[in-house]
Design goal:
Length: 326
């Protein structure tokens, strides 16, 4: 039986990935310090004999030998990474260094969760993997953006210098069940506000755009990518002139934040919520949309869940939580 480690396994995406790996017949270990994750997310997995949860911070080294490591540990919501900026950078860099050292010792394959944030406030649209980004090194988002950029550098050097088999996905805004109700990202905020009849908080004038990917589509892409033989990956990226295997994963449908309000309220028609406008946080990217040509060619993958369908499933999840928790 193959052994997989998921760092950040009690988080939103990590918990979905743990479930998928168990369904695929893996022995799964989740490591998480529970900064933004919750044991509730993994409670349905706890009774499975092939699942182990370790409460641990990856900025400290850890033991164990795994066939595959998925590195997802890192707060992803601006509200939470900005609340602990130093820890965020350290998780991205020192934490990932520990993951890579563990993989190097055991000969594990590594799939690292990078982000569209490495493009910053992009000057190229849609964003292609060869675009190098437009990032502020000293702003409130820098702990995350620059931390994730440095993590990409570490991945590339562990590959070049030590031959570690590491692959990276640059994830664009992904949403779905298991997001924390107080996560602070836009999809969960709008749904919770609409369900509770509270004001819907649009930052800025709502004209900024994002592309929203449903979680199941991302998990499909991650599993397909990890399954590919190294030789196939190496020859694909060599032909593209890209040194380290990195692909965008996201849904190219692009929506303004105002359109997201409209869509959310269309799916929650009994909501009395009104829209209110709040200041736009600094360095908030104006436009974001992935070019997913590489993922399509390499994995034969593209997202299948349209926004309305994914939002409906997410609303259902949060509706149950609002009823349960009052
Ligand atoms: P999340 O906050 O729900 O999950 C992150 C998990 O990592 C949490 O369970 C948290 O407790 C854990 N964690 C944080 N620091 C840790 C540390 N030092 N040691 C151990 N565990 C730690 O966020 P998510 O949306 O599930 O994101 C998962 C990964 O995907 C992150 O690396 C994030 O940067 C990346 N990503 C997500 C998105 C998205 O839209 N969801 C977009 C781009 C990248
Ligand atoms: N946003 C908003 N209202 C909210 C939360 C976020 O208008 O309650 C905006 C935010 O300013 C950004 C977009 O929605 O332009 C996406 O924000 P999120 O925090 O989800 O992720 P980001 O892509 O900025 O990391």
């Amino acid at each position: 039986m193959k052994k997989a480690l998921v760092t950040g396994g009690a988080g939103f995406l990590g918990s979905h990935l743990c479930k998928r790996l168990l369904d695929d017949g893996y022995e799964v270990t989740a490591i998480d310090n529970l900064y933004t994750g919750s044991e509730e997310n993994i409670a349905p997995l706890a009774s499975q004999p092939n699942f182990t949860f370790l409460q641990h911070d990856i900025t400290r080294p850890f033991e164990g030998a795994y066939d595959e490591i998925y590195n997802l540990a890192c707060p992803a919501s601006p509200v939470h990474y900005q609340a602990s900026p130093v820890e965020t950078t350290l998780t991205c860099v020192t934490g990932f260094l520990n993951v890579l050292e563990n993989a190097r010792a055991a000969g594990s394959k590594v799939l690292h969760a990078s982000t569209s944030e490495i493009y910053g406030d992009p000057l190229v649209h849609p964003q292609v993997e060869t675009y190098r980004g437009n990032v502020n090194t000293i702003g409130i988002r820098s702990c995350y953006d620059e931390g994730k950029r440095c993590a990409e550098t570490l991945a590339s050097d562990f590959r070049r210098v030590y031959g570690v088999d590491v692959r990276m996905v640059r994830i664009f805004n992904t949403y779905g069940p298991n997001m924390h109700p107080c996560d602070g990202r836009v999809v969960s905020n709008f749904i919770m506000q609409a369900l509770k009849g509270e004001d819907i908080t649009v930052y800025g004038d709502g004209s900024q755009t994002r592309s929203f990917q449903y979680c199941d589509d991302l998990i499909d892409a991650m599993r397909l990518y990890m399954e590919l033989p190294r030789e196939q990956i190496d020859s694909f990226f060599a032909k593209k002139g890209i040194e380290t295997p990195v692909i965008n994963t996201g849904n190219p449908g692009e929506y303004t934040i105002s359109q997201l309000v409209t869509e959310t309220l269309r799916l929650i028609p009994d909501s009395p919520s009104k829209t209110v406008y709040r200041p736009l946080p600094s360095d908030d990217p104006k436009r974001r949309k992935p070019d997913i040509t590489l993922a399509k060619e390499l994995l034969g993958w593209e997202p299948r869940v349209p926004l309305a369908e994914g939002l409906a499933k997410t609303i259902e999840y949060f509706r149950n939580r609002v009823v349960k928790n009052g």
